[in-house]
Structures are given as C-alpha cells and as structure tokens.
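Predict fold of Co-chaperone DjlA N-terminal domain-containing protein; 147 aa.
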Amino acid sequence: MIADIFKRLTGSDAEPLTETDARLALSALLVRAACTDGDYAPAEIKRIDRILSTRYGLDAAAASDLRREGEQAEAQAPDTVRFTRAIKDAVPYEDRTKVVEALWQVVLADGERADPENALLRMTASLLGVNDVDSAAARQRVEASQK
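Predicted 3D structure, encoded as tokens:
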C-alpha cells in the first residue's frame, strides 16, 4: 500500500489520489513533524492519534493503526514534497490551513519549539499552498489553546 501511494505520487500518469491515500499522507506528515526535532515524544504520538481520530471519525485503535502506517510511510519517504502534494491535490485550501494547524499541534505538543520544527512548518505550509499569514494564524490559534 505504501509503495502504491509513492508510485501514484511520482508517476507521470498521476492518478487522482484516494481518500485513503490522503489520510496516509497526512498521518506521515504529522509523524514527520513530530520526529523533526529528533525526539518522537509520547505527547506527540497521543496528539497525532487524537488529530487522526477527530479528523476522520476513527476510534482509538483505528487512529493508532493509521499513525503506525504513517510512521512506515514517513520512514520510507525521501522528502516531504510527496506528502504535501498528496494533501494539496486532495484537500481544499480551508482544510489545508487546518492541516497546518494540526502540524503545529503536534510540534507544540511536547512544549518545545525547535528551529528544525519551525523550518519544516514554514516549508510545509508553503508546499501546501498555505500563505504565511494563514500559517501564522494557525500557529497562534494552537498556542492560544495551550494556555
């Protein structure tokens, strides 16, 4: 399944991605954000599971399974572009801003904001086609919700 999504993302006859592909891409992107600082913290794992559960209406076991698939996909992907492309192609702009907000939730789940995480979020928002103003607003909403 993971090989299939990469094949569709890089093929010259790019097939439209399925909802399942977009879910896997989001899961992998969330995992990548959590791992960027070199510490895949339990708080980040819990946050990813909660985001996936809420976003897709999954029970805890299904959200955890999707996260584990995302971990495998993230480990096999050479770059972030593949995931952001899948999401950008499948998700309208308003929902992509929510993806950026979800990424900030994961990055800030451990209470720290490292430079590599900031760089990843700047790049990811840009690749998703989310402008700087909307990305900053997403971060500010997450920061405000944690106070």
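The chain is about 75% helix and 0% strand.
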